[in-house]
Amino acid sequence: MASLKVPASVPPPHEDAEQLHKAFEDAVLAANILFFIRSSGWGTNEGLIISILAHRNAAQRNLIRQVYTEAHGQDLLKDLDKELSSDFERAVLLWTLDPSERDAYLANEATKRLTSSNWVLMEIACTRSSHDLFKVRQAYHARYKKSLEEDVAYHTTGDFRKLLVPLVSAFRYEGEEVNTMLAKSEAKILHEKISDKAYSDEEIIRILTTRSKAQLNATLNHYNNAFGNSINKNLKEDADNDFLKLLRATIKCLTYPEKYFEKLLRLSIKKLGTDEWALTRVVTTRAEVDMERIKEEYHRRNSVTLDRDIAGDTSGDYERMLLALIGHGDA
Amino acid sequence: MASLKVPASVPPPHEDAEQLHKAFEDAVLAANILFFIRSSGWGTNEGLIISILAHRNAAQRNLIRQVYTEAHGQDLLKDLDKELSSDFERAVLLWTLDPSERDAYLANEATKRLTSSNWVLMEIACTRSSHDLFKVRQAYHARYKKSLEEDVAYHTTGDFRKLLVPLVSAFRYEGEEVNTMLAKSEAKILHEKISDKAYSDEEIIRILTTRSKAQLNATLNHYNNAFGNSINKNLKEDADNDFLKLLRATIKCLTYPEKYFEKLLRLSIKKLGTDEWALTRVVTTRAEVDMERIKEEYHRRNSVTLDRDIAGDTSGDYERMLLALIGHGDA
To answer: I want to staple B287 with a disulfide (CB 3.0 to 4.6 A). Which of A161, A182, A190, B325 is the partner?
Structure first.
């Protein structure tokens, strides 16, 4: 369930576009008068921007962008980029993008960074529906003039490449049909390979990257029943490394996405110095999808609400934007 | 260019559907009177079937199927299956299917057979457009309740799996943009790996399975310029095996599909005992795409037209069906 709150009566897109433009105009006017004052976003009406954009769904935001471009000959995103700054800017820009464009952007960024970028690719590949993942691949073509899998394959090596390329290329079947015989035989294969510490064995990769989520779930349930431990428990028993961590996260994303996101939020808030990139990513990509479930999970696991933790760890317009997206207060 | 000939004035689909139904009715009537005569297709009006179906494009055939089902409560394909037999039946059934359904059917069949089935998978993955390949994957979901890549991964092993799974999962960029630096550096990588006889090295697989056809073409041209031989010549110098053959065919499909199909037709016709499966597959899958180019190539390479060779090697309704599809005679 989405956390996004859209008001009962939404103004027509041209009105929203005008309001946003006005929010920038104030800034231009102010900048003209006091051009030597360079305080971040000075004069721009951030509150107005949040009150509009954080309360419009993807289709509505797309319309606003379209109308804005028609009226002002400029992409709304470009103007937002010019007027805003730092974490607040990133949150507003990511949120305003169409979901498949946003994922394409995040994935492209991930292929260029080192730190934890593999997680972003895995997360996009495993938590989106098959059709939505395909739309990300189409958006990637349109925006970067190459394919997502081509960039992922080029920028990764070894076991990470072996896992990530088929993950981002997958078009999993999404029906609920389960083949019990297959679930049993593949649970056995997984257990054998893990017992042999062959964590990047091609059979493990094949099963995790091609089977439907329903089938995989059945396989992992059989694993648990037959061998007395969850697969992730067994994957944790041995020496730990980055590949094993990614493998466990992959399994979690495919079977319990809300738990995966809860943990990501927890770690990004609790660590010394908030990880704003992860926080912004999770909030902007899940607000329209399953943020209510994630909030529930967060509350259960941390005995404090996500709203409260975000309010305690962030501030200013960035805080207001995130809280609006996770459904705090009224639309 | 397509070889399919559609008449200038096409009857409305319900008329076509009625004619087809009548072609079967004659058979039922005849069978009732002379039920002990079991000659193949006796009584069915094969000429009528060819004259209609072999001269309708995919959209028209789909409409005929739809109208036929509405009028007779039965899928036209089921009735064709009942009334026809052997090679003629297979040609009519494959042709009548929608292109993406047909490819899904051929691919599924390939995952279950051993002989040369890898070629069918590679051929579908490499000669269809990115969008058409994706439509095949959608049709595969709908028909088989699983994903194409899942079946391919499950039914292949070793080097074949390493090559085929990313091939069928690819969504290549289709623009004409070429990165010359990249072409040079990847030509070098390919040459190094081939010199080391590391034919199934993951870098070779990565380049062949993810780069756009335009980029790959530039890379292989650089290969030829820099190292004095075409890549396929270098891949042929060493001991030959099935994987190397498939690798060369992959490269040919990606860069010169019409030459690949010409050779496939040549071998299927010239070998002792025609390979009807390959012949039927090439004719039914290319008639609406690039059969004219393939015929040109065939004529140039064999000094005889494809029409003549097909007429010399096949007979009866099967011959008539193939010749109609490759554009022999009038619509």
So the answer is: B325
User: How big is the CA angle at A324 (ends A322 and A327), to the nearest 5 degrees?
Assistant: 110
Is B210–A150 a contact, with Cβ atoms under 8 angstroms apart? yes
Residue B36 annotated as lining a ligand binding site: no
Give the distance from residue B25's alpha carbon to the nearest chain A alpha carbon, in angstroms: 39
Residue whose pair of structure tokens reads 């457009």 in the numeric block: B129
Rg, Å, chain A Cα set: 22
Q: Average the pLDDT over B232-254 and give the result.
A: 91
| Separation CA A36–CA A108 (nearest Å) | 36
Q: Is B174 an interface residue toward A (CB < 8 Å)?
A: yes
Find the residue in B nearest to A172 (Cα): B147
Q: Which of A96, A99, A117 lies closest to A108, judged by CA?
A: A117
3 state SS of A256: coil
Contacts of B166 in chain A (CB under 8 A): 149, 165-166, 169
pLDDT tens by residue, A98-107: 999 999 999 9
Chain A segment 101-160 residues within 8 A of B by beta carbon are: 134, 137-138, 141, 145-150, 153-154
Chain A residues in contact with B137 by the CB 8 A cut-off are: 171
CB-based contact A171 B141, cutoff 8 Å = yes
Q: How far is A168 from chain B (nearest CA, A)?
A: 9
Minimal CA–CA distance to A216: which of A190, A195, A236, A197? A190
> Which of B210, B219, B254 to mutate: most A Cβ within 10 Å?
B210
**B146 to A212: CB separation less than 8 angstroms, yes or no:** yes
Q: Quote the mean pLDDT of chain B.
A: 91
Locate the DSSP E strands across chain A. Answer: none
pLDDT in tens, B253-293: 999 999 999 999 999 998 767 789 999 999 999 999 999 99
CB B282 within 8 A of CB B264: yes
Q: Poorest-confidence range of A2-16, A148-162, B24-38, B167-181?
A: B24-38
Q: Is B314 annotated as a binding residue?
A: yes
Closest by alpha carbon to A3, among A301, A307, A225? A307
Question: Mean pLDDT highest for which of A28-42, A226-240, B176-190?
Answer: B176-190
Judged by CB atoms closer than 8 Å, whether chains meet at A212 and B166 is answered as no
pLDDT tens-place string over residues A37-56:
344 445 678 899 999 999 99
Dihedral sign for Cα atoms in the order B160, B161, B163, B167: positive
Kindly state the tokens that stand for A177. Answer: 């049909």
- Is A273 labeled as ligand-binding? yes
* CB-CB under 8 Å, A149 with B210: yes
Sequence-distant (6+) residues with CB within 8 A of A290 are A1, A2, A257, A258, A261
Work out the mean pLDDT of chain A and round it to a whole number: 91
B175: chain A residues, CB-CB within 8 Å? 141, 145
In order of their start, the domains of chain A are: 13-84 (1.10.220.10), 100-169 (1.10.220.10), 180-255 (1.10.220.10), 257-325 (1.10.220.10)
Angle at B169 between CA B178 and CA A162, to 5 degrees: 90
Percent above pLDDT 70 for chain B: 93
Contact A265, A272 (CB under 8 A): no
ipTM beyond cut 0.95: no
